[in-house]
Amino acid sequence: MAFEVGTANNHSDLLEKLKVFATKHGWSAVRHIKHDTGETELWLHGKGESGVEKIYLGFKTESSYEDDRFNLALKCSPLFSNGAKFNEMPNSTKEKYFYLWQHAIPYFFVLNKDFILIISQISTKSHLVYLGKLRQYCSLGHWPRQMGVFGESDKPTGRWSDEGDDFSTLQFINPRANEVLWIDNTGISATRNYPRQGGFKVLDGKPIDDTNDRWLIQMFCIHDKYGALGEFQRCFYISGRNVATGQRFKSPDGNREFVVVQNIHRAGFKDYMAVELA
To answer: Residue 204: inside a domain, yes or no?
Structure first.
C-alpha cells in the first residue's frame, strides 16, 4: 500500500497528481486526455492484488465558472473500450461525484492495486471517495466481483459547500452515492455502513482509561437483500471524541499510522472515520 500527502492547485491539478502517483504504484493510465471543452478525463487500470484482475477507474473533471462548480465525475468498470465516451463505458457504474473547487486543495491519496481512496479538505469541509474493490474473504470467482464507486452523491449540479441528506461519504451510506458491480453486468447500491448504520451499541463504547487509545472498527457495507458486500480497505470507524479532521495518529504499538476524516460538514462524535496510511 502507498499514500501521498500534498496540495493540488485545483480540481484539474488533483487529477494530474493522482495520475502520476497511481502510475508509480501499480496502476496504468489507459486514457489521459484533455477534451476540446477543457475538461480532463483519466482512466486507470489495475490488476488487483491478485495480479490477474481487470479494474478500470474513471475520473473526469466537470467545471462551471458560471455556477461555481468544480467536480470530478467517477466511474468503475471491468471493461475498457478505447472508442467509448466516458459516460458510455461498457458495463460501468453510473456516474457518482466528488465535490471540489478551483482553489488549492490539500489532499491524501491512499491506494493499493485493488482500490484508490482520495481525501480532500475544501474550506471547513472534508471530502472522501473510494473506488475499486471491496475486500472479500473468498477466492476469485467465488462471489460476484464486488468493485464499484463510493462518491458523495449522484447530483451533477452539486457543489463542495452543499449540505444535507443528499451529500454523504461512505461513512453514512446514501444509496444514491454508490454503485457496486453485481451479477450479469448489473449494479446494486449498498444501503448501510457497519458499524455507523447498524452497530449502535458498539459505537457507544470508549476506552475506560485516559491513555487516549482509540477503538478502530473495520468498516464494511451492507445491502438489505444480499447482506455484506465487503470491507472498505483501510477504512475504520473511530469515535469523534477528542479528535479532529486531518489529525494523524499511530496505533498503540506504533506500527500503523492513520488520519482522521469527518463526514463532509458533520461533526458529531459518530461522524468520523480513520483511514490507515501505513
So the answer is: no
Q: How many CB atoms lie within 10 A of CB 42?
A: 21
Is position 56 within any domain? yes
What's the domain range around 31? 2-197
Asked if residue 265 lies in contact with residue 125, where contact means CB atoms within 8 angstroms, the answer is: yes
Question: What whole-number percentage of the chain has pLDDT above 90?
Answer: 83
Provide the mean pLDDT of the chain. 93
- 191-222 per-position pLDDT tens digit: 999 999 976 666 655 544 444 567 799 999 99
Domain count for the chain: 1
> Residue 184: exposed, middle, or buried by beta-carbon count in 10 A (0-12, 13-18, 19+)?
exposed
Instruction: Report if residue 70 sits inside a domain.
Output: yes
Q: CA 180, CA 156: separation in Å to the nearest integer?
A: 19
Q: Which cell is 140 given?
A: 476469485
Residue 228 neighbours by CB under 8 Å, 6+ apart: 194, 220, 221, 222
60: Cβ contacts below 8 Å, ≥ 6 apart: 39, 40, 41, 42, 72, 73, 86
Q: Domain for residue 36, yes or no?
A: yes
221-262 pLDDT, tens digit each:
999 999 999 999 999 999 888 899 999 999 888 899 999 999
Give the pLDDT score at 185. 77
The three three-digit cell numbers of residue 13, written as one number: 491539478
